[in-house]
Amino acid sequence: MLTExxxxxxxxxxxxxxxxxxxxxxxxxxxxxxxxxxAAENILSRFENIVFGGSTSSNYxxxxxxxxxLSEANDAYEWIKRLKGVGNPG
Length: 90
What we know:
Structural class: alpha+beta
Number of strands: 3
Helix content: 25-40%
C-alpha cells in the first residue's frame, strides 16, 4: 500500500542502546472509516507509550510504540485485534 501510494516517511532513528524495552510498529486495517476513528480513539486512550501515530487516507492506522517486553507488546497486539472496527488485512 505504501509503495503504491508512493509514500515516504521521515522517522528519526531511535537510539535503542539507551532505550529499555521493545519497539513495535503496527499497521492496522480498519475496513470502514467510522471504525477507523473508533479504533484510533480506543488505542490513543489505552496506550501512553505511543511514540508516533497516524492514519492514511485509506483505511489504515499506523503506530510506533515502546513496551517493557515482548509479552507486553503481544498483549497490546491481541487487544487491538479485538477492537470493534479493526479487520483482517488483505
